[in-house]
Specification:
This protein has 509 residues and is of the alpha/beta class. The protein has helices at residues 53-60, 83-88, 106-110, 125-138, 154-167, 184-199, 211-217, 240-248, 306-313, 336-341, 351-355, 362-367, 382-396, 412-424, 442-457, 469-475, 498-505, and strands at 15-24, 27-37, 41-46, 68-73, 76-78, 91-94, 172-176, 203-207, 220-225, 228-234, 270-279, 283-291, 295-300, 321-326, 329-331, 344-347, 375-376, 379-380, 430-434, 461-465, 478-483, 486-492. The strands form five sheets. It has a six-stranded mixed β-sheet with strand order 6-7-8-3-9-10, with helices on both faces. It has a six-stranded mixed β-sheet with strand order 16-19-20-13-21-22, with helices on both faces.
Length: 509
């Protein structure tokens, strides 16, 4: 999709920050950072996890206070007292970690604290649903405004968050990893929306770890590293290699999916088989198998039933009917606990809410599933526990001040490594990965992809959901494509390509 570069380099920025400093105990999160957003441009903000991007956005959005520096709107200095104040000044932030109230409806989340009122001062629900429907239609999200938000998948919650950001009709809109759970079709629509906003004269800040998105949608890019400004460049004047060097200070060599050699034609042992899995209104007639040492990819658009399927297989959600076999033995899985006992685990899509105890330490999160073997008689052996956690912190290259650090304070990539580390010390046979590299930086992405390949090389069976077509093509031995709760096609690595995945994911047969 072509993007018109209409930046006016000499115009007064809609938003500008100068010399921003932010300190946390023991950490200098931002060190005199400069950044601006101009009329009719998409200014991308890039950096590895922990670079300071989210901290900068929280300051611009009024959630955090700055220690030093100034913020200017249209050249006039301002001091934001709250997120609401920033919104009133024309700034809307679509956060990476979706700020949702699950028990409220979609419409109530979109218009939280600004619901339309009747003449008597009561919430005008019919008008609110009507307005919510309008914004959802603009982004082509087939979502009922009256549905409780907690009933939706992460991807659909992301669409609601996009609708909310657009409904604010702000002059500066900040998109923080909006595409993390969107597939190529939803992403294409999002870029169309961003282009329309740009042509209306809005200023867009777009944060993404996906370098291809930056080159497709951006006019300029600013790179942060370790809280410092590396530089700002026009997109048309740099290439991918240059940007990667700015991001990480070194070259990143992307390994091809052919690093792990497999014996083609050699019959391998089937580990997991599912037959006739059905869940009313979610998925139907699901059959597939995965062999020892194989990576099976699952691809589909938002609403295809991918995440719901794997959650039902591991017992997190109910199945209406169907059979699951492990090494040709029929098994009954009624809960994730049953799945773990059988040697099956899930690294979930929503790592913060479903994969981690954010208020607990790195050590506690890593060792939780393995505590039974870390005992001395009836008591926990804390020396053994610390040694066990240390092994996996080193193995996974988890960047943390120490084992006692609360997981909530780690970067997204390091949080994901903790999710994976807690399963590696157990004798598991089948690993489900749901969006394993979602929202993490380019270096950590490749580390996790290599870990998945290594697990397969060790003989583990891998089922991986990914919205990133290049990732699923590079890692998978076979790919099953889902549409509207059904498998529409199974493709070998040699058969699969981007065009086929998109076509089958849209119901083409």
């Amino acid at each position: 999709m072509a993007v018109v570069n209409s930046v006016r380099p000499n115009s007064t920025p809609l938003l500008e920050v100068r010399g921003i400093v932010k300190n946390y105990p023991g950490v200098l999160a931002l060190d005199r950072v400069h950044f601006d957003v101009r009329c009719s441009e998409v200014h991308c903000l890039a950096g590895e996890n922990g670079a300071g991007k989210s901290t900068l956005i929280e300051i611009i959005g009024g959630s955090y206070s700055k220690d030093e520096g100034i913020i200017l709107i249209d050249g006039n200095e301002v001091e934001f007292s709250s997120p609401k104040h920033a919104q009133e000044m024309g700034i809307a932030v679509l956060h990476q970690d979706l700020p949702v109230l699950p028990f409220l409806s979609v419409a109530e989340n979109i218009f939280l604290a600004r619901q339309p009122k009747t003449k008597l001062g009561f919430v005008n629900y019919s008008e609110m649903y009507k307005r919510a429907r309008r914004w959802l239609d603009i982004i082509q999200a087939d979502i009922n405004p009256q549905t409780p938000l907690g009933n939706l998948s992460m991807a659909r919650q992301q669409l609601v968050s996009i609708a909310k950001a657009l409904s604010l009709e702000a002059r500066v809109i900040i998109f923080d990893e909006p595409s993390a759970v969107l597939t190529s079709v939803e992403l294409e629509r999002l870029f169309e929306i961003i282009n329309s906003l740009k042509q209306e004269g809005r200023g867009i800040t777009y944060i993404s770890h996906r370098l291809e998105e930056i080159f497709e949608i951006g006019d300029r890019v600013t790179v942060l590293r370790n809280g410092r400004l590396v530089g700002t460049e026009l997109i048309r004047k740099i290439n991918k290699d240059t940007l990667i060097k700015m991001l990480v200070g070194r070259e990143i060599v992307e390994t091809t999916g052919e690093v792990i050699k497999k014996d083609k034609g050699k019959k391998r042992e089937t580990v997991l088989t599912v037959k006739g899995l059905n869940r009313s209104g979610v998925f139907k007639d699901i059959d597939f198998k995965v062999d020892r040492g194989e990576i099976l990819g699952i691809y589909g658009l938002v609403g295809s039933g991918r995440t719901e399927l794997v959650r039902s297989i591991i017992g997190a959600d109910p199945l209406d009917e169907g059979e699951i076999y492990l090494y040709d033995q029929k098994v009954k899985i009624s809960s994730p606990k049953d799945a773990i006992k059988l040697g099956i685990c899930l690294a979930p899509e929503d790592r913060k809410r479903q994969g981690l105890f954010l208020g607990k330490s790195v050590q506690e999160n890593i060792t939780l599933p393995s505590l039974k073997k870390l005992k001395r008689a009836c008591f926990l052996n804390y020396k053994k526990i610390a040694g066990y956690a240390s092994v996996f912190v080193k193995k996974m290259k988890i960047v943390t001040p120490g084992l006692s650090q609360k997981v909530r304070f780690l970067s997204g990539g390091n949080q994901q490594k903790v999710v994976l580390a807690k399963w590696l010390g157990m004798n598991l046979k089948v690993f489900f990965f749901d969006e394993p590299t979602r929202g993490i930086d380019v270096g950590a992405k490749e580390e996790i992809r290599n870990l998945i390949r290594e697990l397969a090389h060790q003989g583990k069976s891998i089922i991986m959901i990914s919205s990133e077509i290049p990732e699923i093509l590079r890692l998978s031995d076979r790919i099953v494509v889902m549409y509207s709760g059904r498998i529409t096609k199974e493709l070998s690595r040699d058969e699969a390509n981007k065009e086929k995945l998109i076509a089958y994911s849209m119901g083409v047969t």
